[in-house]
What we know:
By secondary structure, the protein is mainly alpha-helical. It has two domains: 1-83; 85-128, no CATH class. The chain has helices at 2-83, 85-90; strands at 95-97, 115-120, 123-128. A hairpin with a 2-residue loop joins strand 2 and strand 3 (123-128).
Amino acid sequence: MLQQRIDELLERARGSLVARMAAARRRLDDVRQRYGLREWPRGLEQRRRDADALAERATSALVRAVHDRRRRLGGLGDRLRALSPKLVLERGYCLARTGDGTLVRGVESLRLGELLTLELSGGEADTRVEAVRAEDDDGR
């Protein structure tokens, strides 16, 4: 009988201990949740500041990239203009084309009496080949 009484007391003590541990765990969870809810707005504000800083950095990088590309494009445009045949024409040269529009690259392709169109700085002129003089080997 004494053994049974000891077993019952142990069982009650064990049940009480389990109940107290469960209650303590619930209280701890409640405290964690309340603390988390209190900290949540601060964390959200920090994330908002971080997002704003990232957006500002991204915008700055994009603006720099656009300015760099614009500067590079301007340089390429200057190069292209320098290579333009129109600029060469403005310096006093002309482009000669045959009747079918083929560009004359050398005197060897010309024939006497052939009609040519000369493209000059201010427009075009039609002309006829009356003489062909090739350079000598020494450049004359």
